[in-house]
Amino acid sequence: MNRIFVLMFSALMASRACGADGVFVEYGRANMVEMSRVGELWKWDRNWRNDGDWQVTGFWEASLGSWRGFRPNDNNQTITEIGITPVFHFVPNAFSDWGGTEPYLEVGLAGVHLISPAFIYTDRKFGSAFQFGNHVGFGVSLGARRQFGLGYRFQHISNGDIKQPNQGINFSQLHLNFIF
Fold first, then answer.
1. Nearest alpha-carbon partner for 88 in 138, 148, 144, 37
2. Domain extents for the chain?
3. What is the DSSP string of the chain?
4. 102 has pLDDT over 80
5. Burial class, 124, CB count within 10 angstroms (exposed 0-12 / middle 13-18 / buried 19+)
6. Cα(7)–Cα(142) distance, rounded to whole angstroms?
7. For residue 164, which phi and psi values (nearest 5 degrees)?
8. pLDDT per residue over 23-44, tens digit each?
9. Which end of the chain has less neighbouring CB within 10 Å, N or C?
10. Calpha distance 98→85 (Å, rounded)
């Protein structure tokens, strides 16, 4: 847990220096794999369908993460990952008058990730360092400016069959963010 706080503090300091709109931290698990990730986000200056039932906005996420295999009696590896993902953020207009609370849905499409090494344990291989990532999620934004976010994400990462083997991985993640 201390590592998460150190990573979040480091991301916060770096983000302010490079003009990011916010920071995030994630923790997730998959089949005998644990992951943690920190990152920065840059909001898009665009809204779609403001006069309908949903407001659609988005942002870019840049991340740095670590995946740790913990399969008993195996050649467990620690994978380092960097990535960038466009994220579409959906907010129902019905909740616009709820004060500092706002539920949301989100979709991250066609994120690009680089990993090293390209396997997590003996028979879990990802084929290449180049991976694609997609996620779906939901959560709630909190605070007077809705500056705090707490959510769940389901993320699939694989190489899209550009090279074999393509065993991919599916993470269930807890996502926390802070918007400046």
1. 138
2. 2-179
3. -HHHHHHHHHHHHHHHHTT-SEEEEEEEEETTEEEEEEEEEEE-S--B-TTSSEEEEEEEEEEEEEEEE--TTS---EEEEEEEEEEEEEEEGGGTTSTTEEEEEEEEEEEEEEEESSEEETTEE-SSSEEEEEEEEEEEEESTT--EEEEEEEEEEE-TTSSS----EEEEEEEEEEE-
4. yes
5. buried
6. 22
7. -100, 145
8. 999 999 999 999 999 999 999 9
9. N
10. 29
pLDDT digits 0-9 by tens, 45-57: 877 766 678 889 9
| 46's tokens | 């665009």
**Domain 2-179, second-level architecture:** Beta Barrel (2.40)
Contact 54, 93 (CB under 8 A): yes
Please give the Cα distance from 136 to 27 (Å, whole number). 15
